[in-house]
Amino acid sequence: MNYDVSIIGAGPGGVFCAYELLKKDPSIKVGVFEEGYPLDKRKCPIDGIKVKSCAGCRVCSIMKGFGGAGAFSDGKYNITNDFGGTLYEYIGRDKAIGLMKYVDDINVAHGGGGTRMFSTSGTPLKKTCMQNKLTLLEAQVRHLGTDVNYVVLGRIYEELKDKVDFYFETRVDTIKDTSEGFDIVCGKGTFHSRKCVISVGRSGSKWMEGICGDLGIKTMSNRVDIGVRVELPAEIFSHITDELYEGKIVYRTEKFEDRVRTFCMNPNGIVVNENTNGIITVNGHSFEDSEMKTENTNFALLVSKHFSEPFKDSNGYGESIARLSNMLGGGVIVQRFGDLERGRRSRKKRIEEGTVRPTLAATPGDLSLVLPKRILDGIIEMIYALDKIAPGTANDDTLLYGVEVKFYNMEVELDDTLQSRHKGLYIIGDGSGVTHSLSHASASGVFVAREIAGA
Asked: What DSSP state is assigned to residue 252?
């Protein structure tokens, strides 16, 4: 089977690349290869009743499948160059913002029209943060919610399914550069393609490393973000979330001057498990439907670590910490902030007697046995800093789930068209190390589609 363009990975980058390719040229022949399942078959067995922890599925439906890891996220599309990746360094700031707005228009047209666009512009919270040694990052954010995000992706798939050849449950073994394009080698055969777009996301980091090695593509070590997910009563952050939905807040620690940041804020949301290459970590979701909202808000507190010489494996460092948590807790560990401060492990009874009802069944334990002291000290400092702008954050009953790790692909050497040293081979989305968000990944897909269509 021959294709004009083959896309590896049906996450946001791959989906929006296919969408834009068909819009620019309806006759173009596109094949999409995805290790996970179609959207309607992506089901996590955890129901909180019979199955309370990760079942170790062969393919994690939370992380892989149509829509990628973003399909069951809370559907936040941040329009900003301040965070979410460095796409603007390749294509320019104005073009990057323009593409993110274009992606937003597509989402709105496919079912996201009833959702709200939030903005940090003109908020008095910025001054309050500055007065307390915190920095609020600039952004507009469209919150679709996990439920509406699913609807939007479903409608995009319906629009594409008869025009694009989707190969689900298909892991690509390797990619070969030929004199006339690329051979995509997988369990379903070998497919030839004139051009190839790789968009494998965070969960494809190890696969991407192997492909770059095979094809002689240079890479640079990227960072890893390590921390915890905080869960507390929604009222404590309501003055922030009601206005901004998500506040991206950064703090610089006093002792080490490390940067600690809030990430993925989920008002009235739930805490969930993630399975990345067999490692169980924690994340958060929220919903637009009022009937699915909870009494809690959750968000991550993350510390970035980047290694160069002599140790370069940032992801390996994060994996080792996550595996330690899995070993001690059988998965995710949860601890009351008061217990952490008192130097004691949390127990089921103390959590049940607390004022915060956990939304994830996790193992009560002691995060100080898992997280390095420097990282844990930074997180504790950040909690007290946030307590100044959101009193109650540092309450004893605030829950900390660990560990949360954001693995980033090593940054792949690309030109200003996101093309590798192999002409016609493009690398986009979080798999490139260039983007770290739904909006940036989607925008990179649109950008490359236009590059290909105009070639």
From this structure: E
- Residue 347 and residue 185: Cα distance in Å, rounded? 50
Dump pLDDT digits (tens) for 370-385.
Answer: 999 999 999 999 999 9
At 155, is the secondary structure helix, strand, or coil?
helix
Q: Is 447 left (phi over 0), alpha (psi -120 to 50) or beta?
A: alpha
Strand, helix or coil at 57?
Answer: coil
For 201-289, strand residue ranges (E) read 219-220, 224-233, 249-252, 259-266, 270-276, 279-285
Give the ranges where 26-78 is alpha helix by DSSP (H).
none
The amino acid at residue 64 is: K
CA proximity to 244, closest of 400, 86, 80: 80
Instruction: Tell me how far apart the alpha carbons of residues 128 and 405 are, in angstroms, rounded to a whole number.
Output: 29
Instruction: Kindly list the distances between the CA atom of residue 117 and the CA atoms of 81, 293, 399, 439, in Å, as whole numbers in the listed order.
Output: 17, 19, 29, 13
Structure tokens that stand for 54 in this block: 């990760």
Cα–Cα distance for residue pair 101/419, rounded to 1 Å: 23
DSSP string, 359-417: SS--EE--GGGTS-HHHHHHHHHHHHHHHHHSTTTT-TT-EEEEEEEEE-PPEEP--TT
Q: Which helix (H) or strand (E) holds 30?
A: strand 30-33
- 401 pLDDT higher than 90: yes
User: Is the pLDDT assigned to residue 318 strictly greater than 80?
Assistant: yes
- 204 SS3 class: helix
State yes or no: pLDDT of 394 exceeds 70.
yes
pLDDT at 336: 98
Contact by Cβ (8 Å): 85, 440: yes
Residue 25, strand partner residues:
none
pLDDT digits (tens, 9 = 90+) for 14-56: 999 999 999 999 999 999 999 999 999 998 887 666 776 777 7
**H/E run at residue 348:** helix 348-353
Structure tokens given for 188: 């379903």
> Taking a C-beta distance cutoff of 8 angstroms, is the pair 405, 204 a contact?
no
pLDDT (tens digit per residue) in 169-215:
999 999 999 989 999 999 999 999 999 999 998 788 889 989 999 99
- For residue 9, how far is the Cα from the chain centroid? 15
CA 398/CA 237 separation, integer angstroms: 12
